[in-house]
């Protein structure tokens, strides 16, 4: 695992955007794993005007269960607002789990298969939850996990309450699994701000434990963590 430290969120975002743009220059059909949350916003802002993305394939890491794509707090809305509405990308190449699917288990299987059919994730960008979650893989998740429905922890729902009216965050989500993430050819972690200090320190400690999901990344040989 490589580490890069930045003196500001601004420079972290600029470098993350460079990595993303370079991976598209290296392979215009690259398969990207894409995160949501506050941290990647600066990266997306810097990517939108520079991206020749037509053939890029994207898979979002996760989505809430029970809210539709046009819900203001859905990750689908987030992705359109911050990225997809501003770039030229073939809509057929954009993948986000459907949290409204009538059969959620079938939706998870479909999503995992679509990633496999695309030749697995090429470059996956990850945010870091305060409790070390990646995607919505909460503490205790087996490292062998694949795309599935998960229960969100109280702390994660609290951290994401801001966007939901009355703080009513869905209790479940669909997330790609830790094994799905580890299948990526390259992984870029973005972690910024005081609320992530503890999680960053724990990741730096080298401990590998299912109680700290991000520690699975120590098992991968091409991971870079960009942090402030
Ligand atoms: C949510 C997302 C994660 C993201 C995390 C951190 O829980 N499901 O994929 O990494 O939030 O978000 P933030 O960057 O807002 O701290």
Description:
- The chain has 228 residues and is α/β, with parallel strands linked by helices.
- Helix content is 29%, strand content 18%.
- The protein is built from seven helices and ten strands.
- It has helices spanning 9-26, 41-47, 75-82, 104-117, 154-159, 178-182, 197-204, and strands at residues 2-5, 31-34, 57-60, 62-64, 94-95, 123-126, 148-151, 172-175, 186-191, 223-227.
- The strands form two sheets. Strands 1-10-9-6-2-3-5 form a seven-stranded parallel beta sheet, covered by helices on one side. It has a three-stranded antiparallel beta sheet with strand order 4-8-7.
- Helix 1 (9-26) crosses helix 2 (41-47).
- The two termini are 16 Å apart.
- The structure holds 2-amino-2-deoxy-6-O-phosphono-alpha-D-glucopyranose.
- Residues 35-39, 61-62, 127-129, 135-136, 156, 160 line the site of 2-amino-2-deoxy-6-O-phosphono-alpha-D-glucopyranose.
